[in-house]
Amino acid sequence: MAMAMSDSGASRLRRQLESGGFEARLYVKQLSQQSDGDRDLQEHRQRIQALAEETAQNLKRNVYQNYRQFIETAREISYLESEMYQLSHLLTEQKSSLESIPLTLLPAAAAAAGAAAASGGEEGGGGAGGRDHLRGQAGFFPAPGGASRDSSGPGEEGKQRTLTTLLEKVEGCRHLLETPGQYLVYNGDLVEYEADHMAQLQRVHGFLMNDCLLVATWLPQRRGMYRYNALYPLDGLAVVNVKDNPPMKDMFKLLMFPESRIFQAENAKIKREWLEVLEETKRALSEKRRREQEEAAAPRGPPQVTSKAGNPFEDEEEDEPATPEVEEEKVDLSMEWIQELPEDLDVCIAQRDFEGAVDLLDKLNHYLEDKPSPPPVKELRAKVDERVRQLTEVLVFELSPDRSLRGGPKATRRAVSQLIRLGQCTKACELFLRNRAAAVHTAIRQLRIEGATLLYIHKLCHVFFTSLLETAREFETDFAGTDSGCYSAFVVWARSAMGMFVDAFSKQVFDSKESLSTAAECVKVAKEHCQQLGDIGLDLTFIIHALLVKDIQGALHSYKEIIIEATKHRNSEEMWRRMNLMTPEALGKLKEEMKSCGVRNFEQYTGDDCWVNLSYTVVAFTKQTMGFLEEALKLYFPELHMVLLESLVEIILVAVQHVDYSLRCEQDPEKKAFIRQNASFLYETVLPVVEKRFEEGVGKPAKQLQDLRNASRLIRVNPESTTSVV
User: Low complexity: which segments have biased composition (predicted)?
Assistant: First the structure.
């Protein structure tokens, strides 16, 4: 009873929610006024939620059911469309066959009709029989099921139409329809078996033509339709009868080096027909080719001149030489494929069969290549040119940046190749490069900006240079053998794309005031990716140097100013005291740092315990200067040579001038000796290390650094003396 009350309450709630005048705000207000407390509201909420879930399930069930019905309906429509298409072709065949009946039969047919009319109504059945007889003469094409032999018909043209009608039921064999002189001889259903274990494989349908055998597999989901499986030329095919061995019977084997296939016919009669017609067709094909070879080998005699004496109806006046008339050569445009060419082009464009449309245009151009241009040809070309314009517009739209940019450069290959075949190579190149520029720009813009600059630069370089490499390879594939001007256009495009990359690179690295070490690592990553383009013969290193030189100069200048300011600040607080590192670990760490800076003899400047016989200012200056040099060499390229050298000289001069000034001003002998020891470390250890490292990184010595060291005002004296001359 409680369940019944619950169901009735749910039904009443559903009707209330489904009513046309339902207002949610008013409903909630009434509900809150009528409820006794929070528990009632929770229960009502659960009922509404259960109702919502039930409604969702019903909706899903209805959608699924409607979807299944839609699929079934679409399948039935497809079947109906196929049958209507077949019916249309059958009617066309009937009409063509009736039109091919000789005109000489018409008087006899008229006489027979008159006799039938005079004899009375009881002879009416004979007229119908006559129509049936004519219909039997016209209906020469075989049925699609079972097996049938096209042994009679209205000539080769009718057989060709029969082949076209049947092969339109086979998917993937359009190239067969374009073979001249090919017609259907025999066809029928077969079952294929495995050669080793005689296990049934699949149902197939065989189409025997006058020069080949087509095997098509049966499509169970599409009635009366097949899919292309294999095509075997008859001159390389051997037929072997397989002896019956129940339950394996009515079989024959086809041998095609190096493979073989076994088929089973429906019964013994159809098997015998297959064997006979295969042998007959092979024999006829070999005989035809033998005759062709004999005709080709036979010598051709001079053309015979027809004598006027053989024509008794010529007038004697025609003996006089007549003025030759120049007749305009006619072009045969009556062929079916030419008549239907404009409509076929419209269909190909509508179905986005660009290759098929260009194939038709090539076929027409090849046919009219050496022929004159009378008015009919000009009219046909005008119609075709309009379709070419429409096709070009569609291909241009395919390459426009408004289309989806997914799929990479290969997605544009189809439209580009067809534009090139249409003679629009320059336009194809321009549109291809414009499409790829939009794709690269979109990829860079969608790249997520990470907190770590180096991580973002790694991703940026991977996205950009991978896209550039793929674009270059696709460009080389699509435009191979075309005008070399396209390659110049690609180089210009690559430089423009590199500018887009450098804008994003500089904005993240240099505009954000990253440290010189971070900037150096980022530039190093960009150079490494750029050098990978050398694998395809594309060197853009000089472009990235030219685009980055201004930003790198600014970074070097900025970091130089930071070092100079820090050095001046330490110089202002210099007390010229030895360093006490307090712990052996700190001393060991300093030794490792100086060793990494290139100072190999730092041991001689260390004292007892944890003392270092150098001032903190000189040690800090050494580490900072060598760090600056190492990072700057990562950024180095020839355009930055003087900028880097001048920055180093300015930094070194600040420390050298401070030491020289301290030597002149200091009066305490001990401090003066300590200052001289620091000056000796600068001139004899640090400056040679800077010169050597600069020469290693740049490839040539720096004369300015040598002059700076040689122009030292520190005068060496006898080590035993306690005085010096400054």
Answer: 138-147
Helices within 510-583 (DSSP H only) = 516-531, 541-572
Query: pLDDT tens digit string along 501-531?
Result: 889 888 888 887 778 888 888 888 888 888 8
Report d(CA 92, CA 168) in Å as an integer.
14
* Angle at which helices 375-398 and 425-446 cross, to 10°: 10
Q: Which among 546, 578, 610 is the end of a domain?
A: 546
Look at residue 275 and give its three-state secondary structure: helix
Q: DSSP string of 347-366?
A: HHHHTT-HHHHHHHHHHHHH
**C-alpha separations of 611 from 233, 602, 616 in Å:** 96, 12, 11
* CATH number of 224's domain: 2.30.29.30
How confident is the model over 447-499, as pLDDT tens digits? 877 668 888 888 889 888 888 888 888 888 888 777 667 888 888 888 888 88
For residue 77, what are the CA distances in angstroms to 83, 85, 226, 714? 10, 12, 18, 103
Closest CA to 579 of 690, 714, 677: 677
Strand-strand pairing, 200-209 and 184-193: antiparallel
- Domain-embedded: residue 236: yes
Q: Are residues 542 and 631 in the same domain?
A: no
List all residues 6 or more positions away from 397 whose beta carbon is below 8 Å from its beta carbon. Answer: 403
Task: Indicate whether 601 belongs to any domain.
Answer: yes
Q: Give yes or no: residues 583 and 644 share one domain.
A: yes
Domain that residue 231 falls in: 174-295
Q: Which residue has the tokens 């409680």?
A: 2
3-state secondary structure of 608: coil
**Domain stops at, among 29, 53, 80:** 80
Q: Is the pLDDT of residue 639 over 50?
A: yes
